[in-house]
TrEMBL record:
Start and end residues of each Carrier domain: 4-64
Signal peptide: none
Pfam families: PP-binding
The protein's name: Acyl carrier protein
InterPro entries found in the cross-reference section: ACP-like_sf, PP-bd_ACP
Length: 78
């Protein structure tokens, strides 16, 4: 359920089909995921999961898979 929610956030913010999102999807691997959309993604994740991701984790969030790992630290279960 949470993975689907996160997938939907990625698809919406990056304006790509959900089918394109996998754990291997990485920052800057597609033109849509640049530094500006990265910050929009963080904001949408914070809103969607009621978190406040800290700066180190924002920088560390380099892939969809890593996003799940980071959110797990904030108590989101996958």
């Amino acid at each position: 359920m949470n993975e689907q929610k996160l997938r939907h956030i990625f698809a919406e913010v990056l304006e790509i089909p959900e089918s394109q999102i996998s754990d291997e999807l990485t920052y800057n691997s597609i033109p849509q995921w640049d530094s500006i959309s990265h910050m929009a993604l963080i904001a949408a994740i914070d809103d969607g999961f009621d978190t406040m991701i800290d700066t180190d984790d924002v920088i560390d969030m380099s892939s969809f898979g890593k996003a799940k790992e980071i959110l797990a630290k904030y108590g989101v279960e996958f």
